[in-house]
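YM 10:42: UDP-2,3-diacylglucosamine pyrophosphatase LpxI sequence, as discussed on the call
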Amino acid sequence: MAQTSNNNVLGLIAGQGRLPFIIAEGAKKAGKRVVCAALDGNASPELADVCDEFSYVPLAKMGRWIRFLKSGGAQETIMVGRVAKKRLQNASIPRLIAAYMPDWRTLRTYFWRLRGKTMQNDTLLSAIADELSSGGIILTDSTKYSKDQLADKGVMTKTQPSRTVGQDIEFGWEIVKKIGELDIGQSVAVKDKDVIAVEAIEGTARMISRAGRLCKKGKWTLLKAPRSSHDMRFDVPCVGPDTIRSLHEHAAAALVVEADNTFIIDKQETLALADKLKIAVIGH
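YM 10:58: structure's back
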């Protein structure tokens, strides 16, 4: 039998990556009991070590997410972490149904809440949030318990951007915000006021690799930002040590992110690594 929701409990719907760990750790520091619905095939099993309750739930059975979270006393919930989007994007609807066997809530979200709408990220996630809300699970700002991990305004590293990089930032910022508005991606690569690469479905990591191949002389800048009307419940860009290593490997000079709206995963360690590898990190 489901417990009554508890203000001292935070629900966590977790996908891939380090971010669910940071959210859980931040909530625990705030005195919250963390109940984690881990998306099967995506969330790390080690996440169980930092949560009070942990269970894998099928990706396409939203009713199971709701029942598990409510059984742990959760109402306020944060949903973070990557999902294998490319695999889903490449599958037809009949194949998705056969592979994931969606429950009635998931089917209702697709055939009712999304009927006549585009399958853009923000539209899909808003529909999921609405369906969760109808079951008593309320998604909240994903940065609420981890504000210390957000990007600051200005240069965050000891490594300073060059004058040329400063010009590329001025040129590229309006462009990265525009592609966000169009829901194309969150990142662009710029060198000498030329756009080298634009992120699409492949994600930032592969886009960085592509930019490195296209700009052999290096010293290019990666700009990453959310769309202007992004929803803080599930649309917060992230960078971290892997981003910095990849930028260094592909000869980038700087990383620019939106201040107060970008997670820097393991912030102190990431900025220290950026200084070691001579990558300037700037909050715009």
